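Section 5: illustrative case.
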């Protein structure tokens, strides 16, 4: 049926879709900034004006950290795709940033998988989806490993306040359910787009160890960069707690926020709530925490999304 539609009409609808994605992304960003019940936009701007720490030099340093954050994400994607095809750094950047912009409008950023796949031939798209899943899984693995270590240290320090037994019980139940689910899927004949679980498993096993190690290293460096950025922002708000103590809370925060189920509309609210709860233990006021989370979102999501919108408008789909 699509083949019967005139070429000019298809081009018109394609341009309309790209414009809709960009306009929708910008509206989503605006909505996030104005509809936050915990920190309204006027209050946020007032806090920044009252804080004399945000000089041109400081802002430049913060943007540099965000640039490094996305630099390693782009390098991670370039390394993953190199498992079957060499792509330039510019192509990896285009795919990473445009998929970020488009994924703002989808639950749990699932649109990222589809947008990256559109840059490749039809027979390569399943492989791209699998590699994107691997990249996100490695980033999640870093979050879980460091988060568990941070949460362990955090609970040891504040065990008299938090019911550790309940947390352990819930964690054990979740691990058992996840284990049973994994075994059930691995033993079943379940297929995803014609591929069995075993064939997907075999594909990942055939990938060179070098791909895994380099992608994991970039994921770890990226985590270290945005964790330090969070700490640095807190110091700008005159939080004088030691780096070690704040780091245990930051790693715990990212871990808990990543495992709490949420849809994209409430994602920032969930992270804000977890951050406010954890930083209350070291007496960091709510406005400081919410402002820090908001600035992190602006620097690491909004800023690259604006750059990605340029690539979305320039995008030309790969003809299959």
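Designed sequence:
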């Amino acid at each position: 049926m699509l083949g019967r539609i005139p070429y000019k009409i298809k081009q018109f609808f394609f341009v309309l879709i790209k414009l809709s994605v960009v306009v929708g992304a910008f509206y989503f960003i605006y909505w996030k900034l104005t509809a936050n019940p915990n920190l309204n936009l006027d209050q946020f701007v007032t806090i920044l004006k009252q804080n004399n720490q945000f000089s041109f030099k400081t802002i430049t340093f913060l943007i540099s950290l965000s640039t490094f954050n996305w630099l390693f994400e782009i390098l991670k994607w370039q390394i993953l795709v190199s498992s079957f095809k060499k792509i330039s750094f510019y192509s990896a950047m285009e795919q990473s940033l445009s998929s970020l912009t488009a994924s703002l409008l989808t639950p749990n950023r699932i649109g990222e998988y589809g947008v990256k796949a559109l840059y490749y031939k039809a027979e390569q798209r399943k492989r791209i989806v699998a590699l994107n899943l691997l990249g996100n899984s490695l980033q999640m693995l870093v979050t879980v490993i460091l988060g568990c270590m941070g949460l362990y240290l955090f609970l040891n320090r504040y065990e008299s306040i938090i019911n550790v037994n309940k947390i352990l019980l819930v964690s054990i139940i979740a691990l058992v359910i996840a284990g049973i689910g994994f075994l059930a899927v691995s033993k079943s004949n379940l297929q995803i787009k014609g591929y069995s679980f075993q064939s997907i498993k075999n594909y990942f096993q055939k990938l060179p160890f070098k791909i895994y190690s380099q992608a994991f290293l970039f994921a770890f460096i990226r985590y270290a960069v945005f964790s330090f950025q969070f700490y640095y922002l807190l110091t700008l708000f005159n939080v004088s707690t030691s780096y070690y103590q704040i780091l245990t809370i930051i790693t715990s925060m990212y871990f808990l926020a990543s495992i709490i189920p949420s849809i994209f509309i409430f994602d920032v609210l969930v992270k804000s709530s977890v951050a406010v709860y954890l930083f209350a233990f070291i007496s960091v006021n709510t406005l400081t925490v919410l402002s820090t989370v908001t600035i992190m979102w602006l620097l690491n999501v909004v800023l690259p999304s604006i750059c990605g919108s340029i690539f979305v408008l320039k995008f030309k789909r790969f003809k299959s």
